[in-house]
Write a structure and sequence with these properties.
alpha+beta; Cathepsin D, subunit A, domain 1; HIV Type 1 Reverse Transcriptase, Chain A, domain 1; 6-stranded mixed β-barrel; 4-stranded antiparallel sheet; 29 strands
Length: 549
């Protein structure tokens, strides 16, 4: 078909097309004190300089102006800061540029589009195959300086800017503030709830992978022995409290039992005796925290599909909180939550302050969630939990201490959670909070432990377990209450509730779970569950919700 077409021959003086051309390098003088080859990359959005160079020059770095960069393999890294208005001399022309500082790089300087604009850079391809590079002097635009260049022999990575963290703007002057108050109407008030709830944009939402779960990743659950076989009965005449090494008088006082004087004296002694029988299930500190027994649950294997390893770099830790962050990591390592890691994985992490003011470590698990096989389970419906708890004679609330930390990870999955911390590379030994399967698996484990107690008297919701008292207080016509036959100082509904609490605490004790003593409520007339108050009369929204309305 093509035989009858004339052959197209290129003249000998026209170059054949190139498959690949190297980037160009030129010599620059930074801050009149450091001479270095710099790579020209006109497709780059920023100018990058290695941290060691800036440090040797003693030039200040603005550590509030940060940029997140993404490489060709999808890995992301944050810059250390920005060296602003840094003088740079090319040939005999001096300009000022902003250079973004990186910790480690295979090059010293990478000159992108901001350099091209500041120096009025021009490229001209010559017939001999060479490229002529010239700049204009900003002080004398009529003067153009030609720069000697040579092919780059080093490695320059492809970089894309994906997010920028700008420092806050300085406050306006009093004059400007006055003019704005008189000339412009004030902006509408910002809804605090909007600021709190906005975690990440919808397009950044990561969803797990819907596919078949291999059998090796299934979580095994079993009851090795009926825990009620070892349940000690409660005495109808409870003894006086005797302090022990685990439950001291000081610890008992911190629990503040009977804050509303709802219980009678004999009933207080009864619940003190219940706490003493189940003292090992109560913890006050991270070091005392337990974990679900392997006899009941197999360690969790995170089901993942084939993927490329991730290695992400953290934002710098603010100097003011560095010491507190290091103490927190030491505390987690001592309790066994973290262990040293040699993995190639690196997740990002950051710290947030709880309502109590203490720091909490948050792992950015988006890379892990994106390759995790989806668990089809769902948590319970909050309204059903609240409705089932309303209108009861009394309540007890149990909060599992650092609940997710009580479920162990299988060794084969620990490396997936590796982070670079101030105390070195560490990996989690427990289920990471924020992992897409954590909520469903943890809730199903608690339901498995309390299966015989659900829905009455127990109603668990993730790491919180509400225990309902009887639906009636067995009131008498004279205004009194029915009591148990062998002790007129213990009301019948309190006795029934005490046996329920004792039995549920014992079930948790047998599995190795631990309850936060600081968040324990026993036999109280009213509790707040999922922002609703539940009491003998029914349920009403919490005061904080009413105030917002």
């Amino acid at each position: 078909m093509h035989d009858d077409l004339p052959h197209l021959l290129l003249p000998p003086d026209i170059h054949q097309p190139d498959f690949c051309l190297p980037l160009l390098e030129l010599d620059v003088l930074v801050d009149s004190g450091f001479k270095s080859p710099a790579i020209l990359d006109t497709g780059l959005q920023i100018i990058i300089i290695q941290h060691d160079i800036v440090q040797s020059l003693g030039f200040p770095i603005n550590r509030q102006r940060l940029i997140e960069m993404e490489g060709v393999n999808g890995t992301t890294n944050w810059t250390v800061g920005c060296a602003e208005n840094l003088p740079m001399q090319v040939g005999d022309v001096t300009i000022k540029v902003h250079m973004h500082v990186v910790e480690h790089a295979s090059f010293g300087l990478l000159l992108g589009q901001p350099f091209q604009k500041a120096a009025l850079l021009r490229f001209e391809d010559l017939p001999n195959g060479k490229v002529e590079v010239s700049v204009r002097d900003p002080a004398d635009l009529s003067r153009r300086t030609y720069l000697p260049t040579h092919p780059c022999t080093g490695h320059a990575p492809a970089v894309k800017v994906i997010s920028v963290h700008e420092p806050p703007l300085p406050p306006p002057s009093s004059l400007i503030q006055s003019l704005m108050q008189h000339l412009f109407l004030p902006p509408p008030p910002i809804n605090p709830a909007t600021l709190v709830l906005k975690y990440k944009r919808v397009d950044k939402k990561v969803r797990p992978v819907p596919t078949t779960l291999p059998e090796e990743f299934r979580n095994l659950r079993r009851i090795p022995e009926d825990p009620l076989l070892s349940l000690p009965p409660l005495p109808t005449h409870p003894p006086d409290f005797m302090p022990s090494e685990r439950l001291t008088q000081e610890c008992l006082d911190k629990l503040a039992l009977n804050p509303d004087n709802f219980l009678w004296p004999e009933e207080v002694k009864l619940f003190q005796h219940i706490l003493k029988l189940n003292k090992s299930v109560l913890v006050w500190t991270e070091a005392e925290r337990g974990s679900f027994s392997d006899a009941y649950f197999s360690p969790i294997k995170i089901p993942v599909i084939e993927h490329v390893l991730w290695a992400h770099k953290n934002l710098p830790i603010p100097p003011g909180m560095l010491e507190e962050v290091i103490k927190l990591f030491h505390k987690k390592v001592a309790s066994g939550v973290y262990k040293p890691s040699d993995s190639s994985y690196h997740l990002c992490w950051f710290c947030v302050k709880k309502k109590s003011g203490t720091l909490h470590i948050v792992h950015n698990l988006q890379p892990l969630n994106a390759v995790t096989i989806r668990n089809s389970g769902i948590p319970p419906i909050p309204d059903q939990v609240i409705e089932s708890m309303a209108g009861r004679s009394c309540y007890s609330m149990l909060d599992l201490y650092s609940g997710y930390d009580q479920r162990l990870l299988d060794v084969s999955s620990c490396n997936l959670t590796t982070v670079q911390s101030p105390v070195g590379a560490v990996r989690l030994t427990v289920v990471p909070q924020g992992w897409t399967g954590a909520v469903v698996i943890f809730h199903s484990n608690v339901v498995f432990i309390l299966e015989a107690e659900i829905p009455d008297p127990a109603m668990p919701f993730l790491d919180d377990t509400g225990i309902k008292g009887p639906a009636t207080r067995y009131e008498l016509e004279d205004g009194g209450y029915k009591t148990i036959p062998t002790n007129s100082q213990i009301r019948r509904f309190v006795w029934e509730h005490a046996n329920d609490v004792h039995r549920i605490l014992h079930r948790f004790l047998c599995t190795g779970a631990t309850i936060s003593a600081k968040k324990l409520f026993l036999a109280v007339p009213e509790v707040t569950i999922l922002s609703h108050k539940c009491n003998y009369e029914g349920r009403i929204p919490d005061n904080s919700k009413i105030a917002k309305v």
